[in-house]
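Q: How would the structure tokens look for this protein?
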Amino acid sequence: MELTIAAALTSSALLLSNLASILLAASRLKRRRVIAPPAGAPSPVTIIVPSRGVEPFTQETLQRAFLLDWPRYELIFCVAQAEDPVVKLISAAIARHPKVAARLLVGEDRVSANPKLNNCVKGWQAARHDWVILADSNVLMPRDYVQQLMAAWRPDTGLVCSTPIGSRPDGFWAEVECGFLNSLQARWQYAGEALGLGFAQGKSMLWNKPMLDANGGIEALGAESAEDAAATKLVNSLGLRVNLVASPFEQPLGQRTFAEIWARQTRWARLRRVTFPLFFAPEILTGAAVPLLLALLAAASVGASLPSTALCVLAIAYLPECLLAWAKGWYLSPRSITAMIVRDAMLPAIWARGWFGGAVDWRGNAMTIRAKAMTELEEPA
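A: Here is the predicted structure in token form.
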């Protein structure tokens, strides 16, 4: 009987913590609204976009970067290899928008085993302005992209970020990816910020360049396996905060496969385990898998209906999650709950995989994730 009560109480506690995270995230997140262009002469901004390869939405995300409402900004596109097919697209876009200050820099500075960071170094060194945004090439920038980032800066801020919000999924596995990115990962990141535990996210990062340069420069972000983990620790060490934008930016997904999701999620899991092991360890308790299992064990021991118990747990777990997505204008479809169930079924296996080493593929680069850094296994493909 004691085990039955313990299982029931633990299941209830986990479901309540899940609901609490949703409420905390909802308190920080705002539904998308447009911020008007600033009046007067705001500070100029440099936007560094590391690029590699051509993806289904590359043309659109590239075009968006040239249509921002910020009065003064420059674009610096960084590509590691001259033969990369994205070079032609970037060059053509620059030619189509002569009124936007934009440059393409080709080459790589091996300051770390992180290929994205190495690609960004030349852009950082070439930046003309004190405010610098590092923006992944697959971020779908709204016209008020810079305003949204600047609005989140406070006197005690060291870094402003945006977690990606998955949109435009094509197929069921892309909907599973939305479930990972949106109402799970973004939700917990905003809940953490509400509790004073802001974590950086490398998709969009707004830096004050003099501040970072005074503390090791962009090379300091190579101190950890992932630049966002290094950024979090650096900012915290300075007594500053990592803030998130009120409305995170979209990442259009298109098609996804199970293999792609598994590879990406296990890579991120290993990065979190190496860089923040104390926060990674309890991740096994997120999602509905563990509370559902405990509730079923408790129900079976007292002869309660297992289907009714399962339905009750799933409703408590997923209806608030769907309400959060709906309230914030995130992608939601009739298949979303099924996608969330599949996501949560994957979570224990992803968590377990996170505790093991081994090679990973990081956009064509074979890497081994180790404590404090990554080791490159071969030259970039």
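The chain has 13 helices and twelve strands.

Residues 376-381 have pLDDT under 50 and may be disordered.

Upvote if useful.
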